[in-house]
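Q: Hi! First time asking for a complex rather than a single chain. Here are the components, and I think there are two in total. Is that enough to go on?
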Amino acid sequence: MMRTTDHHHEHDEDHSTSASAAPLAPTRAAGPARGRSRVLQGVALTSVLTLALTACGGSADGEDSEDAAAEGEDVTLSVTTFNEFGYEDLFEEYEELNENITIEHNKIDTAENARDSLRNSLGAGQGASDIEPIEVDWLAEFQQYPDRFEDLTDPELEDRWLDWKYEDAVLEDGSLIGYGTDSGPQAVCYRADLFEEAGLPSEREEVAEFLGDTWEDYFDAGREFVAESESAWYSGSDNIWQGMINQVEVPYQNEEGEVIADENPEVRDLYDQLLQASVEDELSAGLAQWSGDWSDAFQREETFATMMCPGWMLGIIEGNAAEVEGWDIANTFPGGGGNWGGSYLTVPSQGENIEQAKELAAWLTAPEQQLKAFEVVGAFPSTTEALEADELLSSTNEFFNDAPTGEILAERADAVETQPLKGTEYLTINVAIQDAINRVDVDGIDDPDASWEKFVNDMEALR
Amino acid sequence: MSAPAAEAPVTTARSGGPAQGPRTGRRKPKSSFRRRVSTWDRRYSPYLYISPFFILFAVVGLFPLVYTAWVATHDWDLIMGQGEFIGAENFLHVLGERAFWVSLRNTLSIFVLSSAPQVVAAILIAYLLDYNLRAKTFWRMGVLVPYVVTPVAVALIFSNLFGDRFGLVNSVLETIGIDAIGWHSDTLPSHLAIATMVNFRWIGYNALIFLAAMQAVPRDLYEAAEIDGAGKVRQFISVTIPNLRPTIIFVIITSTIGGLQIFDEPRMFDQYGRGGTDGQWQTMTMYLYELGWTRSDFGQASAVAVLLFLLIVAIGLVNFIITRRISSSEVKR
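A: Yes, that's all I need. Here is the structure of the assembled complex.
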């Protein structure tokens, strides 16, 4: 999942006290200064702990974990999630099933903060939860540290997930870093009422037809729409970019892990095609995804008519567009199928209760539990059994005009052809290119070429 | 920070210990041990009493400072830890990055935009509070309210006010016929918006410090000035300001230290917390955070921390010298 529910950023470098390095005025400097002295302490603390860890040969293999948690002993398991995994009820259920287990839930607001927090814990050699989430965009990044995670290979579970979902989490040495939670097959959400006002077809099947098969068809449909409407075709280029880039087989880094993003003609072509449509043809509302303006725009008269819609986006639209009528979902996706987002549960080796954590992670990602999470927050399952389950296929979404969302998304999942090769720097590079796109579409401070040059410089800095 | 006790004792080292006043001989001379203890007591106990601060500072202030410099000279990954010694390479790399210079520019710009108006406004507010207002305490406490509100809440409120498309500020501007301003896209407006948040938070706090200093100005000076025919403005310029000088120096130095390390407000100014698509408002601390935690290069992050430290020391010294120059050029009372 890649969502930001709010703009509230809490930093997690909460080490020890905040001491100001200014004997003169502790009070005044403890304001903004806190950031830095905390960072400094974070640096110091992390380094000290790293030293300590390397000094003992990093033998955090959890050898003593089995004794620490003998059968029947009371154990507290901590689980970190970000945004909405929909696990709250599941935790209660698990505690009822297992008398001796208490679950502590640590919920982080955004995927990026969850990633930073996990990096921090791995660096410090402590502080990670017993179960930590990893989002598909930064999966490869953490696969560089196989010794920091438990191998979750379990012959009984091998066929539980969709092939690609499972394969993505398998390391070179054959070990498994995480159990798949949800996936993000995308459909197109649209405002039927705006379509109607513009004199365009507004029924689900008709709209799917009207949107066509390729990205250019989709943009053409948009050109037709904006000619007849005050609203834009989509909220901003960044939303569309996620749809496009997740169909490119080798986008940012090649097999060897070398950064090719700025030399890859495929990436550049999509970039040009998108910005042409967004800016020249004025299809974009020019709103940065997750910003305050973006959230507000759902409620405005002049808004936007379509959106790339992975399962988890449905809940977000419903939240932002509460009381707004006319949202619907079409069973189609430009360029074929596409997957945006989805996560894994991992068990960091530094934990005390490895075995119980593995059991819990396996239970949380089982088909029955995935279906429950889908019920609650729309997190689309990644297990084959759940994908065929009746309750999934028969589920409808009231807000989206009672659309058969389960069926539609299941078909969209089948349409996914490519799973892009996401390298170790995927997130960093994707953030850089999103910035490049937003410089043109949202901020209007650069033309596409100038902005691309800056992106090239960013890539140079990465090399 | 060496052990303070090693420094020269305050009293002149006369073997006889404390000065021996004229003895009347009525009291028995103390035993030499007790005398020695009391000598030690007088000589060294002051150091003992102030030592907790220095010990604490050495552990949580000085050690991280020195250790950061040590990390900065190494190839150091957040997760993999210490790499090899590479000398000044981190510094050279950072100094060669455009982002570093952009963040330096932003830091200085936001610092100037926030600190200068802050001090001026705080003095003026303090001057108003110094009058015999009704419900004095209420007003004085009132100016401190923004300081108590968490920066996160302040940032949320302000980033909504400063929304580019649907923000309140732009709506008001549009109704009076001014074009909407790109608070999150253009460099200077973003700095102004962030400086506004910082000022909102700190003006009241500094006003109270100035108020305390104003209350200490002898009232008879004002009376004398009034008899000499000075108006309110003249009194303020010729009596109040000169008497506030030490406090002004104090506030400027502390604002410098805090202002150059600004992090919370710009970090929460938009949904990503990276300082804009083009680093429009990425400050040095944010750049440091990005290097250390997003790119996981602790060596480079520490190099930025060291450079920031040097910058603060340099600007602090310049401030200090200028304010001292100004104060010594005035006629001493």
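A: Chain A touches chain B through 68 residues (CB under 8 Å). Let me know if you'd like any chain examined more closely.
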